[in-house]
């Protein structure tokens, strides 16, 4: 009798977990164990899930359109709730422009508009649903309260111009990490994009960039090396007194892209005590697989655009557009992407998409190479990121499921999702406290 009751209880649990799980075809099959899904779901609910790189569009931070709604963005509160994503680092991103007073002023205004948008979300639009955190303790407190967490990172130090005091100003607005360049050399350091033509501006850090590293240590802001050049990274590590992060990069040994970190860079990062936040960006996970699918999808997108009487722009073409033209394109881009994806789903000749399994291959490699305490997770959502199975924040659980399938323990999964990054944040703050106490 007891055996029958046990069997019924286990069967009921398995069915219940199946009915309440959102599992994508990108990383699971019908043969997956329902018990494993239940285990992964329980772990996912207990650990703090943190994504270090989510871009924003200020158009989604208004009274009428904002993240309380199901916006066209990959990240919003409904998607975070559906996928169990606890913490989103919203990005103050500015593209690279001329190294002039006019360029710096424009970049500063752009940065301030994004700071303002994030603050409006947490203070005006959804204070009952999401709160801004600036420390690991605040993250834990907010998650325990049942709210989602917003944190702020700066992608490209270009907006600080030549005024080093802007670093503390941005810190006081909530920024807790900053990269010193993006795509193109900034006034602070060389970018990874210099690999294309082997043309460098500073051969690493500029003199101002060296001062910025020191100032970031002083205020307690994490240094992000995802976009700077390899030589810039080497010089930053030699100069910094605190651990660094790569907020959204993967393993170059598995995918030879300049945005990824090679084995030598990974050793530098390990020795520094930092963390690399593995990024779910298809071109940085498997370039060949991604290009094959994109070539096929581009033809579909062009056909659909033609049928709608509009023009399709690839990523490089898009960058060359004016801001007004970019805004127009964004208005119809998602519609075309959705229609193309639907057509591709029923076309067996379209190559397979880069998926969650491919993404976790990079996590596996990084863990084996530098140790699990130096590896984390990021998406680059709304900045080009996302893979099949983790295409937006609503599918966040699928990453945890894949980690469970590969044998990671709950403690290890907690480290990957947030523990390692928050540990670095704590250590950076401790260095700042020590430096300021010696002044």
CATH H level of the largest domain: which superfamily? Metal-dependent hydrolases
- Sheet bearing the most strands, described? 6 strands, parallel
The name CATH uses for the topology of the largest domain is TIM Barrel
Radius of gyration: 22 Å
Spatial separation of the terminal alpha carbons: 74 Å
- The assigned structural class equals alpha/beta
SSE string: HHEHEHEHEHEHEHEHEHHHHHEHH
Roughly what is the average pLDDT, rounded to an integer?
92
| Uncertain regions spanning at least 5 consecutive residues | 1-28
Proper CATH architecture of the largest domain: Alpha-Beta Barrel
| Share of residues in helices | 40-55%
Oligomer: single chain
CATH class of the largest domain: Alpha Beta
List the helices and strands and how they pair.
Elements lengths: L1 H19 L13 H13 L3 E6 L21 H7 L3 E7 L7 H25 L4 E3 L3 H10 L2 E8 L9 H8 L2 E5 L27 H13 L2 E3 L5 H10 L5 E2 L16 H10 L2 E5 L2 H4 L1 H22 L6 H5 L3 H23 L10 H15 L4 E4 L18 H9 L4 H28 L2
Parallel strand pairs: 1-2, 2-4, 3-4, 4-5, 5-6, 7-8, 8-9
Helix pairs in contact: 1-2, 2-15, 7-16, 8-9, 11-13
């Amino acid at each position: 009798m007891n055996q029958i009751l046990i069997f019924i209880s286990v069967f009921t649990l398995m069915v219940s977990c199946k009915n309440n799980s959102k599992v994508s075809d990108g990383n699971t099959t019908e043969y997956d164990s329902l018990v494993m899904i239940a285990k992964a779901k329980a772990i996912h609910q207990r650990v703090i899930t943190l994504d270090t790189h989510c871009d924003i569009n200020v158009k989604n931070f208004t009274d009428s359109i904002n993240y309380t709604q199901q916006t066209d963005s990959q990240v919003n509160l409904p998607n975070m709730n559906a996928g169990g994503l606890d913490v989103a680092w919203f990005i103050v991103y500015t593209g690279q422009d001329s190294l002039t007073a006019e360029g710096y002023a424009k970049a500063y205004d752009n940065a301030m508009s994004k700071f303002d948008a994030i603050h409006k979300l947490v203070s005006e639009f959804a204070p009952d649903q999401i709160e801004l955190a600036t420390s690991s303790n605040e993250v834990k407190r907010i998650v325990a309260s049942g709210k989602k967490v917003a944190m702020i990172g700066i992608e490209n130090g270009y907006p600080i111009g030549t005024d080093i005091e802007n670093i503390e100003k941005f810190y006081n607005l909530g920024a807790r990490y900053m990269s010193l360049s993006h795509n193109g050399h900034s006034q602070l350091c060389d970018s990874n994009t210099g690999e294309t033509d082997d043309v460098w501006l500073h051969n690493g850090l500029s003199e101002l960039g060296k001062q910025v590293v020191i100032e970031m240590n002083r205020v307690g802001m994490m240094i992000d090396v995802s976009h700077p050049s390899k030589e810039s990274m080497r010089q930053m590590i030699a100069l910094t007194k605190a651990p660094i992060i790569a907020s959204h990069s993967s393993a170059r040994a598995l995918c030879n892209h300049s945005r990824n970190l090679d084995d030598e860079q990974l050793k530098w990062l390990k020795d520094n005590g930092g963390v690399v936040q593995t990024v779910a960006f298809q071109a940085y996970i498997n370039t060949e697989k991604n290009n094959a699918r994109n070539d096929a999808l581009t033809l579909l997108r062009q056909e659909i655009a033609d049928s709608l009487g509009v023009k399709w722009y690839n990523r490089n073409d898009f960058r060359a557009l004016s801001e007004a033209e970019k805004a127009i394109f964004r208005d119809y881009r998602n519609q075309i992407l959705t229609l193309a994806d639907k057509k591709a789903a029923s076309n067996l000749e379209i190559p397979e998409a880069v998926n969650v399994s491919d993404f976790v291959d990079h996590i596996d490699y990084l863990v084996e190479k530098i140790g699990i305490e130096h590896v984390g997770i990021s998406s680059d959502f709304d900045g080009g990121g996302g893979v099949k199975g983790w295409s937006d924040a609503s599918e966040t659980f699928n990453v945890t499921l894949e980690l469970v399938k590969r044998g990671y323990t709950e403690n290890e999964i907690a480290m990957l999702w947030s523990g390692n990054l928050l540990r670095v944040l704590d250590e950076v703050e401790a260095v700042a406290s020590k430096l300021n106490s010696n002044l």
